[in-house]
Amino acid sequence: MRLRAVVSASDGGPMPTGKVNFLHGWNVFVGSALVNGAVTIEAKVPEGKKLPLNALYLGDSNYSSTTSVASR
């Protein structure tokens, strides 16, 4: 499956940097660094699990961490 997370700057601020972890339930199953405010990864979700997927932005020197607000 392909997962994509986009972290937007607030109020014209600097481009977010840092890392996004993708979570399956409460467990991190993959993480990657942002490139131009976005990250796209290919991942295999554990079979037989029906937990929600979330993206967790870990923050940087300009922005605090936050979790995904929408999922598909």
SS field, number of helical segments: 0
Q: How many separate domains?
A: 1
Question: What's the rounded overall pLDDT mean?
Answer: 86
Q: Give the class from helix and strand content and strand pairing.
A: mainly beta
Shape field: elongated
Write out the strand line-up for the largest beta sheet, numbering strands in chain order: 3-2-5-6
The helix content is: under 10%
Overall number of strands: 6
Kindly estimate the percentage of residues that lie in beta strands according to DSSP: 35-45%
Task: Report the uncertain regions.
Answer: none
Instruction: Give the radius of gyration.
Output: 12 Å
Q: How does this structure look, described?
A:
The protein has one domain. It is elongated. The strands form two sheets. It has a four-stranded antiparallel sheet with strand order 3-2-5-6, with no helix packed on it. A two-stranded antiparallel ribbon has the order 1-4. With 72 residues, the chain is mainly β.
Write a brief caption for the model.
This protein is mainly beta and 72 residues long.
Keywords:
elongated; four-stranded antiparallel sheet; 72 residues; mainly beta; 42% strand
